[in-house]
Specification:
Rossmann fold, 13 strands
Length: about 375
């Protein structure tokens, strides 16, 4: 969300709002300015009542009216400003906004475990009804919004996730780059898994693949603090975290540093575990690896990736992963698609995604063009906070 907002701010003025969940947020009035160094972005933090998304807390406490009032007081020309909402729980805010509204949905929140799906579907319908432009990040989420959310297809624009423009190399990388300091003692070849190392990955597959590839090292780059409810998957992750030796967990890394890790790998692996929420998503880590140019293997756990061959190679199980790793080793980890990945990465940037949104908003609508230029307000939240 921060990366997209930063890219958008290069095109139009942006004011970012980010909630801080608080036990007594409904009665707090503070606002705090936060200056992010990377990406360079100014964010206004404000208190939001805990459980605001659970019935009947939001309705009884008038949370939607309170947020809308806060935004309106801080927007000089609200009728000429566009509100970008990033969660269905902002439907009451969008319905009170006097200017234009864009619904930018980066996850199929209705499919999240523990969500009240009927309520979320109702909110999605309200958002689709009030929004002038609806931007899901995958075609599967777009189809959900069309069929379940009742969204007019003319409003829909799919905007996938992406990578930073500066991560796109000046020329294709046809061999692995230098290793970051915390991986330098790992012997090559190295298979890498980058991103949030949580419930969305198939840890059984990973454990089996690691056990059957003694000639490979494995680098897991990302946070491991998110809980996994499935006992088997949780145990498999724990086993790998305790493996040591040729298996390295680096912990979380700054987003801007991930490109260094991606370029250093001999092979990248996207081991998604299929669930509706994951299957309907867009893979940020795919676009990171695309810009790194290295060979990519992926399971069939995400619909978006099923359309990406030959930029990546689809694998169905640990046996297929093992066979493909051996094949790549035989050809010195050059699969012949380095240049194709490099070319594709130039269009898979956050900057390109921001241009697509603004261009669509501008198409044939002079009034909308004027509305976007004076000021664009981004109301952002983490789905987990809902």
């Amino acid at each position: 969300m921060k990366e997209f907002a930063t890219a958008l701010s290069d095109l139009v003025p942006v004011k970012c709002w980010a909630p801080k969940i608080r036990n007594f947020g409904r009665w707090e009035r503070w606002e705090r300015e936060i200056a992010l160094p990377d990406p360079r972005l100014q964010i206004t933090s404000f208190p939001l009542q805990r459980c605001y998304a659970r019935f009947p807390v939001g309705e009884l406490l008038g949370i939607g009216s309170q947020i809308a009032g806060r935004l309106l007081r801080n927007t000089p020309n609200p009728r000429e400003s566009t509100l970008v909402c990033t969660s269905p729980f902002y439907a009451p805010v969008a319905e009170r906004w006097p200017g234009r509204v864009i619904y930018y949905l980066t996850d199929l929140i209705a499919a999240y475990p523990g969500m009240n799906r009927p309520k979320v579907e109702t909110l999605d319908r309200r958002m689709c009804g009030v929004a002038d432009l609806v931007c899901p990040n995958s075609r599967r989420t777009a189809e959900y919004l069309r069929t379940v959310g009742g969204c007019d297809p003319k409003k829909l624009l799919v905007i996938p996730n992406a990578t930073r423009r500066r991560n796109v190399l000046v020329e294709p990388l046809d061999q692995a780059g230098p290793l970051p300091v915390d991986l330098r003692d790992l012997p090559r070849p190295i298979v890498g898994v980058i991103g949030n190392l949580s419930y969305n990955l198939d840890w059984h597959l990973l454990r089996d693949a690691v056990a059957a590839t003694p000639g490979f090292s494995w680098a897991f780059v990302g946070p491991v603090d998110m809980k996994i409810t499935d006992t088997g998957q949780r145990d498999a992750r724990r086993d790998l975290m305790g493996h040591g030796g040729r298996v390295r967990f680096t912990g979380a890394k700054p987003y801007g540093a991930l490109c260094e890790y991606g370029r250093a790998l001999d092979v990248a692996l996207l081991p998604y575990l299929k669930s509706e929420a994951v299957f309907s998503a867009s893979a940020t880590r795919f676009y990171e690896h695309l810009a790194a140019c290295r060979p990519i293997l992926s399971t069939r756990g995400m619909d978006e990736l099923l359309q990406k061959e030959p930029l990546l190679k689809l694998v169905d199980n640990a046996g297929a992963v093992i066979a493909e790793l051996e094949r790549l080793r035989d050809i010195d980890f050059r699969d012949g698609y380095e240049k194709a990945r490099w070319k594709a990465s130039a269009e898979g940037t956050w900057e390109a995604r921001a241009r697509a949104m603004v261009s669509r908003a501008d198409q044939g609508q002079a009034a909308f063009d004027q509305a976007c230029k004076p000021g664009l307000t981004l109301a952002a939240t983490e789905a987990a906070q809902a």
